[in-house]
Amino acid sequence: xxxxxYDAGEHRAAKVNDLFARIARHYDLINDLQSFxxxxxxxxxxxxxxxxxxxxxxxxxCCGTGDIAAALAQDGAETTGLDFSAEMLAVAAExxxxxxxxxxxxxxxxxxxxxxxxxxxxxxxxxxxxYGLRNLTRWERGLDEMHRVAxxxxxxxxxxFGKPANALWRAVYxxxxxxxxxxxxxxxxxxxxxxxYILESLKHYPAQLAVADKMRQxxxxxxxxxxxxxxxxxxxxxxxxx
Length: 242
Ligand SMILES: C[S@@+](CC[C@H](N)C(=O)[O-])C[C@H]1O[C@@H](n2cnc3c(N)ncnc32)[C@H](O)[C@@H]1O
What we know:
Elements lengths: L11 H12 L3 H8 L3 H13 L6 E5 L5 H8 L3 E6 L2 H13 L1 H4 L3 E5 L12 E7 L8 H11 E12 L5 H23 L2 H12 L3 H11 L3 E8 L4 E7 L3
Parallel strand pairs: 1-2, 1-4, 2-3, 4-5
Antiparallel strand pairs: 5-7, 6-7
S-adenosylmethionine binds next to helix 1.
């Protein structure tokens, strides 16, 4: 049976937007619970790969409540977090205001569509997206846009759920996404379907290997796949040639 929040067609974006509007206030807590807190270390890995240099400009797409964007700003990048959900952005802005150190950083959030970025080409030294590409109507379009706004030499980094190559591990992991994650969603957010969406969207997303292929098609250099937890999570990395 298909998921109420997953739509393969023209209503995809509206349904995804509705989903994040509903869960925005519980998003951070449930992220910690469903990943046993591990998402924090995976995001730190993303920020380490971003290797922020003085004066760097960073863009974090599908920024949600803003943790990757905030970490890039803490490292000294002039950072923009972009998301299409007003509710997720409201949480991001509140978090920034509540954090004395973050308030003084060059960090701002804007509402926009990751598939149609409101920036000219060659604008950023770092372009990241965490758990975002999988949610786009056309993930390839998101990567095209990341490439377009990246400056020569920029680092493009994608973090998302992956598909483990090992069939047994994949079955165990998909069972976790099918059973435990919606249960956590139901218990802590009153919404099982919003969390059952993760598995549904992952089934329709070709994950780390296809993202790496697309990065090569875009002629990025140093293209790498960093598998985490045996490929259950993955970071794709590439650099725009100078
Ligand atoms: C799973 S959350 C990820 C949030 C954050 N990056 C993280 O790692 O925790 C996905 C985010 O993508 C946003 N999103 C989905 N489709 C989008 C689009 N077309 N343009 C911009 N944001 C989008 C959602 O609103 C949501 O905040």
